[in-house]
Design a protein that fits this description.
By secondary structure, the protein is of the alpha+beta class. It is built from 16 helices and seven strands. The chain is elongated, with a radius of gyration of 26 Å. The structure holds ligand C2E, succinic acid (3 copies) and fe (iii) ion (2 copies).
Length: 412
């Protein structure tokens, strides 16, 4: 239990500490930890609003955690509850009012909300006092709720949350709301950026980027399962990769219309110009404000590298376009990245992009036959493509075909 002095110190440091965290998940976990510490609460959760629902997004529970083997994480089936006045969390999200409940098993029958015993029953836990606070943004929209459970006194007995706890929790809630709002604004900006890229090249870009993103996410997930990546990391990476893959060619906004829309093969000079779209794309994400910027930069820069080192732009500094020191070949040209020098997301999008480019008609070429495409990809395992990813490609071929059908040319 924190002393009063420690509480004050911790509050003062909180803003600074949290402003240094870019990753939304880590930040929300930290807010929850600090909020619980402050109120000496055994458990807590943050629910995030998605339209008319609250998603149970982050949760901590000391009592249940202690029963688990070391380092094992709490597993909750992700569930969601409707935003209405029938549940405690729903009521707070629907009305924007804070609820400070002394004992959820002794709610007056006249109240509109009930405690759902479902959580206690599945988890083997006894909830008693619950403090629930709305997460409100600057426009007073409710983005979610912060809930802390079972505050304990000096002797470890469960007691009720004080008025002071209530006031303090508003501070934590506002930190969480700002972080959430920032993440949601980033997301909205990215979606706008994707639409702008589509406007530039509407005939090809719209359906192409959706398919490439769908393929990339499918291939990534299979790769991650084979490599025993944690489920939470997979889910998060899927989301980041989907948006990054949709923007793989966004650097083409800097390519002239004459080249971009040329209804014939490019000559050597034009092709050199076209290749710049990798570097131009990476420059758009240079600021790295979020995980997403990092992934989008990686994808834009690396999606035309080849496993055998014969791709582009190779080991260049994307800011200047010049070779990185030590990566120049005797003739002065830059060495291509090869094998695992190419980041995973770049290797994945390379395969997804070519599969889609071959499968569809372009202004400069016809679509290929399915069997020719399969042969081409098979043949290029270990030369153009990461051989492991090609293996995954064929093991998930039916799924990839169904994604392709889902995003057929309807958007043209
Ligand atoms: P994209 O159309 O999205 O094509 C992506 C990649 O798919 C190409 O990267 C290439 O690796 C593969 N690809 C596409 N079509 C063919 C094909 O007919 N045969 C083979 N073997 N591979 C194919 P690449 O070549 O680096 O091109 C990058 C981008 O440059 C293309 O994106 C496209 O926008 C543009 N581009 C490339 N060649 C031409 C061309 O001759 N004319 C025009 N107008 N644009 C071209
Ligand atoms: C969620 O984590 O459930 C959604 C968050 C978001 O929309 O950014
Ligand atoms: C999509 O749903 O957009 C693509 C398919 C997938 O997620 O695997
Ligand atoms: C990534 O591209 O972000 C993943 C890094 C890797 O495994 O190459
Ligand atoms: Fe490209
Ligand atoms: Fe492409």
């Amino acid at each position: 239990m924190l002393t009063e002095q420690e509480k004050l110190d911790s509050l003062t440091r909180l803003g600074i500490e949290l402003s240094q965290i870019n990753d939304l998940d880590i930040l929300m976990e930290r807010v929850l930890t600090r909020a619980r510490q402050f109120a000496n609460a055994d458990a807590g959760s943050i629910y995030i609003r998605q339209e008319d629902w609250l998603n149970f997004s982050y949760t901590q529970n000391d009592t249940l955690q202690k029963k688990l083997p070391r380092n094992e994480k709490l597993i909750y089936s992700t569930f969601k509850i409707p935003i209405d006045t029938k549940s405690i969390a729903g009521y707070v999200a629907a009305t924007g009012r804070t609820l400070n409940i002394r004992d959820v098993y002794r709610l007056e029958a006249t109240l509109p909300y009930r405690f759902s015993k479902r959580f206690d029953e599945t988890a083997g836990y006894k909830t008693q006092s619950v403090l629930t606070i709305p997460l409100e943004n600057s426009n007073r929209n409710i983005l979610g709720i912060l809930q802390i459970i079972n505050t304990q006194d000096d002797e470890g007995r469960i007691t009720e949350f004080s008025h002071r706890d209530e006031l303090m929790m508003h501070h934590f809630a506002s930190v969480a709301a700002v972080a959430l709002e920032r993440a949601q604004m980033t997301r909205a900006l990215i979606l706008r950026m994707i639409r702008m890229a589509e406007m530039r090249d509407p005939r090809e870009t719209g359906p192409h980027v959706n398919r490439v993103a769908g393929f990339a996410v499918e291939i990534y997930e299979q790769w991650a399962l084979r490599h025993h990546i944690d489920r939470k990391v997979i889910d998060k990476s899927r989301d980041v990769l989907r948006m990054a893959a949709m923007l793989h060619d966004v650097g083409k906004v800097a390519t002239s219309d004459l080249i971009l829309k040329k209804p014939a093969r490019l000559n050597a000079d034009e092709y050199e110009d076209m290749k710049q779209h990798t570097i131009q794309g990476a420059r758009l994400f240079e600021q790295q404000q979020s995980d997403f910027d990092e992934a989008a930069g990686i994808v834009a820069l690396n999606h035309h590298e080849r496993w055998d080192g014969r791709g582009y732009p190779g080991h260049v500094d994307f800011r200047t376009g010049l070779p990185i020191k030590g990566y120049t070949l005797p003739d002065g040209s830059v060495r291509g990245k090869q094998g695992n020098e190419i980041p995973l997301f770049g290797r994945i999008v390379a395969l997804a992009d070519v599969f889609d480019a071959l499968s569809t008609k372009r202004t400069y070429k016809e679509a290929w036959d399915e069997s020719d495409i399969r042969q081409q990809i098979e043949k290029n395992a270990g030369t153009h493509f990461d051989p492991e990813l090609v293996e995954i490609f064929f093991s998930r071929y039916e799924m990839l075909r169904s994604i392709q059908k889902r995003y057929a040319e309807e958007a043209c």
